[in-house]
Task: structure prediction
Amino acid sequence: MSLKRKIISESINWEAVLKMPFVDAIKKAAGQVYVVGGSVRDHYLGKNSKDIDLLVRRLDFEEIQALLAKYGKIVLVGESYGVLKFYPNDIELDEPIDIAIPRTERKMTSDEKEEYKNKNGKYPTAYQDFVMTSDKELTIKDDLTRRDFTINAITKDEQGKIYDPFNGMHDLKKKVIRMVSPKAFNEDPLRMLRAVQFAARFGFTIEPQTYKAIQQNCADIKKITGERILIELEKIISKGNAYLGFKILQDTGLYKQIFGFDFKGDSRMVDKAKRLSEFLYAITQRDSYESTDTLHSLLIKKLKLENKDSSEIMALELAWHIPSMRNKLESRMLGARMYKIAPSMLNMTMFPDDILKVIKDFKRGLPKNAKDLAIDGNELMQLGFKGQEIGIKQNLILQQIYLDRLKNDKKAIIQYLK
Result:
């Protein structure tokens, strides 16, 4: 099996990556190469990883760039603190290889924040509120000290030797999430949400001191942008146990800090969620908040939802909050309205039974709108209808089809109109 095929077929095989020519070039230049982060963790959990992080010691950032340029494409993402993304030649990867040199980080001082504001017109966000310093001679332990959790602070060198200064392997075996430093959440509040995400994703327990630290610092999650919060919430639903993640969010206080209210809905709905919009709807629900905003508009304000997720939540609101005792016509008309708002509703499952039946009918050919009718506007004009009358007739045809009184067939529709 070729190296290319091996890497693709096994997601990303970091042992194979360490045998690639660019790694040999770094070693020949007296550099030291280490695999760090989630790919090491996932390897010992028996899980595939789509990304890989390499740490290179003993070489300047410029030296590393010069070496890598001979073996692939380089994209600088953090030149000021020595981080780049590398696309090796002739290798197809889902994600580029992240390569960095050792670095330390600290919070900005008040003076540095003011200097940042004077330069950029605003104060730094929680993700900008730090100073990173690269140091090619920094020890592995010192570099790993800035990592979030012990299970993510394990590294291997190119010879396969493990460096585990914070006993991350022990915590992996015990299925425990433990912060590396007591300052972990002060340095980066998003780590609190990452702890929840890892617990939901791997079925791990957050150890007591780490759990307590999250509870004490939960208000700081409001310093994190909605976009970054959504990324972690999406991982909970797409990769983890949604209900477990939801309960930890509540118990740690993160839930109320993110959404601004206590949950008062039906928690059983969380188990039905299969995608981000469904998860957000399930863990908020109309009964949980007093705002006059619709749920989708409230979440847009708080989390900056993308259009697709916002539209799907609007469709969920319509399905669950318009009176549930609907006849067939009402259900189908509502389904058509929901489809107009969110066509992706056809792939969703967290709907009342009558709407799920409508989705099946749509997939079997029931027209979702006038465009799906067997007769179009031009043909109606040829039959003598004009202007607004055409739209009225199309709606009437749809209604008759939804009542099962008319088939979506051109001849049948023309006969009905006559």
Summary: The chain has 22 helices and eleven strands.
